[in-house]
Structure formats: structure tokens, C-alpha cells
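ENTRY TYPE: protein
CONTENTS: sequence, C-alpha cells:
***
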Amino acid sequence: MTVEMREGYEGTGPGAITPDGCAVELYARLPVGDEPDIVAGAVPAGAHILELGSGVGRVTHALLERGFTVTAVDESPEMLARVRGARTICAPIEHLDLGERFDVVMLASFLVHAGDAEVRRGLLRTCARHVADGGCVLIQREGADYHVNVPRERVDPSGFTVRIASAEPVGDGVDAVRAEYVFPDAVWTQTFLSRPLTKEQFESALAEAGLKVDAYLTDDGMWVRAVRG
């Protein structure tokens, strides 16, 4: 099956590649980080979470283990085929309208930094449209040095290397970022468009969607809890 790639996005390596350049086999290998702990510490126990951009369920499965109910959304059927134990919905996030409200809406994986500002607006409108009264939206932002401390790499304890090889300006405040994932038996790359956002720009984007910051959840400001403004 031919996948229509989003403009400016590309991926290489074994297995299926999603429209935004993500490799399904790669994401099935990546370990879960501290995201589930951050989420669990920021929302009510047992909450129903709408996870936007769930991928293969790397975080989904950890949230289910912690007693949350999860509705997982992704535009890639190959990604969603790996999700177990959650309701799954295959759709582009920026156009999603389920006619439902959720205790928590989660927009992780730096999706708020979409290179296309109209896509970002759609993502945040989706968050606002689906959060219940009294609920919250959890958003993962890029780190302050994400586009300037390049190239850089780290070796994961499980034995693979993650490298941000380049971040090249392509106009209108957007960078084309190239990431490389090197395993002993395979290499994957992803090129994607990302728009750096200052704290002020981020909060302005939230306000445009009818949201406001309730709390910065981590010292680095990368995880944010927002509520309706």
C-alpha cells in the first residue's frame, strides 16, 4: 500500500512508515519513559484519557496498567494494530470530532510544534473540543535547546543510539529536523517539520484555542496541564 506522506516529512528503515515519517517497527521497540508517571501524577485516578497520537501504544499500555481508560487515536492503521486493551480510532487528529468529552486529553510527542501553523491550530482545537468541563489537557513541549544543541546523541540503556543529526531552517520560523535511531540490527531515520515556540508563543496558541495553562508539570517546562480558558 502506498502511503501519502505529509509534505516535508520522510522516514527510512525497515517496515511501514507513517505519513509523518514514523517507522512502526521502530516505535514498537522504543522503551516507555517517564510519561506515564507524569500523567498519573497530574490527573485523577481512573480518568478516561483521549490519547491523541498514540502510535503503537507505548504510553497507552503503561496508562492502562495504571488503571486508566484510554481511547487511542492515530492516523496510522499500522500503528493502531499494535495497541492492545484500548479503544482505537484511526483518523487525522487535527480534524477529529468524536462528539464526546473526556476527563483528560493528551497531546504528546511534541505534536504542538507542528510545522504547519494551521495543523497546530487544528490539534489544539481538537483538544479543546474533547475535554470535559472540569477536565484538563496534557501537552508535551520541546525542550528549550531542542533546535540549537545540534547535532547531539544519547545512548539508551537498552543499547540503541538516538541522534538528532540536524535542524535546518526552511522558512517561516520552521526547521526541518532529522532524527536517527541506530540499533545493532537496523537503522531508522525520520525527517519532520517543527516550529519552535517560546513560552509566550505557546501560551498564545493555547489562548487562540480557548485554553490556558493550569500548571507546568516538570521543571524543564516540557509537560503542561491546560484547562479551558
Remarks:
- Residues 117-130 form the longest helix (14 residues).
- The helical segments are 24-29, 35-40, 58-65, 77-80, 117-130, 199-208.
